[in-house]
# Entry
Amino acid sequence: MEGARPTNSEERDGRSKEPSPSELLDRSKMLNFEFNGRRMSAFEGDTVASALYASGVRIFSRSFKYHRPRGLLCVSGRCPNCLMSVDGVPNVKACTERVRAGMKVKSQNCWPSLEHDIFSVIDKIGRFLPVGFYYKTFINPPIEWSRVEWIIRRLTGLGDIEEEIASATGKGPKDGRSIISSSFEHLNLQADVAVIGGGPCGIFAALEAGNAGARVVLVDDQPALGGHLRYSGETLSIDVATGEGAYSGLKSSAVASTLEKAVRDRPNMTVLDNSTAFGIYESNLIGIVRGNSEIRLRAEQLVFATGAHEFPSVFQNNDLPEVFLGRGMQRLINLYGVIPGKRAVVVSNNDSGLGVARTLMDAGVKLEAYIDSRKAVGAPETLAEIEDAKVQTFLGWAVKEARGSKHVSSIVICEVDNEGELVHGTERVVSCDLVSLSTGFETEAWLLNQTGSRTIYDELLREFIPRELKPTVYVCGDLTGIHDLNIAIMQGKVAGLSAAANLPAMARSTELKVEYQRKSLETYSRLVSQYEGKYREGMKHTRGPEVLVVEYPGSDKMRKRFVCVCEDVVAKDISLATFEGFDDIETLKRYSTVTMGPCQGKMCSMPSLHLCSRVTGRSIAQTGRTVSRPPFVPVAMGALAGAELHPVKLTGIHYKHIELGARIMDMGEWKRPHVYTSVEEEYKAVRESVGVIDVSTLGRLDVKGRDAGKLLDFVYTHIFSTLKVGKSRYGVICDDAGIVLDDGTVTRLSETHYFITTTTGNVEFVEEWLVWWATALRLDAYITNVTAGLGAVNVAGPKARDLLRKLTTVDLSSGAFPYMNSAEGEVAGVPCILLRIGFVGETGWEIHFPAEFGEYFWDTLLEAGKEFGVKPFGVETQRVLRLEKKHVIVGQDTDALSNPFEADMAWTVKFEKEDFVGKAALVAAEKKEPERMLVGFVMKDSMVAHDGDQVFSQDGSRHIGFVTSSRFSPKVGRCVGMALVSPEYYKEGSLIRVKSDDALNGAEVTLAPFYDPEGKRLRA
Amino acid sequence: MGFLLECPNCGKRDVYEFRFGGEAHRRPRVNSSSEEWMKYVYMRENVAGVQQEWWFHRLGCHKWFLAIRDTRDNSVMRTFWMGEELV
Ligand SMILES: [Zn+2]
# Structure
């Protein structure tokens, strides 16, 4: 693999000899991992990027459009340059991903390799891919698209989706190996105060809120808390006024460790490190991604300590590998002990560049030049130190271009005039192998903006700073546009104290403490405004040109000034798009795709604003920032979707069905036996002797109360208040549009107690429906869903009575226990409700009993039925048996437009009731000719029909409806079924044709049941 | 990602514990005009603003209650039992 091999050993910079105290590495532990098939080594604590860089890798990716080589830039997970595939998961940021032993890392977006990317030829013909090329190029003709699509897809993809699917489903890549061990999951957390950002101000906010008694969750995206204190390598100078003067004179990384320990030691504090908040939703719900987990954190109060990130200024070839952001450089050196190069240049326009220069010198890197576009700096003593080290300093200068092919080899610098333009003719070349940019901060306000809080551009600070905060929202630190540790500490304390003070009283502590906290809040608030005033004064003195986008005569032709490294948008593209009329920042974003890449504008938002502002002549404040929506960072779909969980409901008898070898089918969330042996055998047992079926999946509701009968009269189309105790009745539920919603039996157990069955899978709905009407009508009726608590079997067939007689003393004779009656009693010693209902058209009882007796009850029935040749039967046999009786299945033989008249169930509608759900609609429907009618049919000869087949008129000329159910009837000896057809066919003996397998097969309409039309058998 | 809703029985819960029951409207009398029934059965206000609506505490106490909610930002002003305020 070319990209992993330095072109000569001189370039292998490696690590510092002595580990620095701020390092996150354990140099005593070595780990091995694989990069593009090659074995690499790392220290425990390394990120993929730091390990690769220390091993000499400089090119980390190929760019999106031009396939230019790209190296590390931000080293903090903000830019797209180091996206790689890790263990099959695409688009992982190598600079934040910890090395694990044996992990497999692959580069993306390059073919065949990072060093020799075939598509980098695009870079040479860049003029063929102008801005907006997605919109301009492929409008017409369509044939062109088909020819180039494959190549564009290959060109523009980020990551391999096949691998993503494989990893999300845990099924692994094509070779069948599962390389993803952990799965996606969801977690929920609650807090009084959520602090987002674990830098110094975030830590102090958390500590103060915690002191006040609040439950705090601190969210930070880094492996170690402390923010820039971890890697800046400075010796702190802290004001006594902050209350933290004790930390003065200490190394920043040591203070970070102390603060981290203080936070972690608190019992009321939860620290979520390596966690990125990607969105703020309603009611202060924070979406957080941590590895493969999505955490949903709900907080009363939100403290934003999200800081600011650096972005690169725009000059020719600014995207060359080894052009770094200053803080990224500091991270590599101080957190990972990497010596990034030999001869460095620092380019700056603010005081943070001085700190970076110091870090580089401390690490033993030769500083070739310090270049600052300002004429004065805020820390003259540091500048003096740099000059003392014989480093050339250029104040009032800026970089014009970087030179080099795969690595930077020199830069060209120019003097800057008062307008911020480069002065032609002042060019000087500085040779170097490392460029560090400290060219500006942008506040990380995207999350804050999602709360509805606004940000405005501050002309003095030159950043977007928070304004008009929503209630429960507080901000502190770099996010406020002020980069000063003393102020950050005090702002953090103010934020934490304010958040705690606004909690409901119960979360807070004693009166005395509350008073003390109120005083602290006052003091720190006063100090913050005082210090901020001073800070702003200082800014006025060092103010100079920013030079975010270098401009000089002819620069508009320079096409390698990259504004957006994600989408390869160059300065010329932005100018062009603005000229083309896309001069509104939001339309500019969509047209040029600037800010729309994986970094979501973090690297390009400010430079593109400056460009847009320059072309349109509008101020930065007038141009405004684009709005970013969640997710704020890319989030794996798998993390959002969570674990692949499918709820499954099993009846209490389920494992008996398995023992009996039943074929199991899904019915909604339930598992049911489809068939045990064969439909013929099971059918024969039921019709000639006795069969049993597990019907525990039926919904069961218990309705109690003075108004129970009234409620049922209102909700069902039939009447139940007049039903005698001990009787059952079939009922249909409609909505107010008259559409059939459900059906089942209603049994009256006492004056004020009814027992209802609903169709399988519909019980939750029927329960909600009944409770809603009871609530809306303000009735004294209480509905309890007893489905899970009750098992049920149906015992049916001419020998059903004989079988049950062996197990119960309940009188089952037709005189004592006629059709549509019920009884409560013991069967096989189990307390049961017995309903004598039709079901499959034979003598039979539906028996409900406590679910825990399921297996015993089932076994006992089968044992007792042996002498009669009892057979268990499945859903398929049940469908044949019930179809022969023309029993309607709601949802199968009816649809979302069926009323009871169409379903041939007019007998269930009782208009004599004053009102009921659906009455108005059904009264109107009854007066009209129905549009379709449900009819039975028998196929001619041996022809078959299927559920869903289309139905035609006898001559085949007219489409008249469709088959809802169809099965072979052993009784009729032919295929029978039901169909929804034009009403003129609702006539015994009408001839129709069913279109099956491309043939129009003849059938004859039958209105009566196919089996025992008089219903003698079920009453026997 | 959901907002919080306060069940009058159980307290503040994530909205995913509830089933939305739609806008709360007065049901017409049985002999009302077909226009009125048509409006009740098929028409929805779909306001961008404050409305009164039904919620069912599906994963909690299995009770229906009413809420006054702003559909623009999902802020819930009030939740209450039927009868505490006229529909
Ligand atoms: Zn509740």
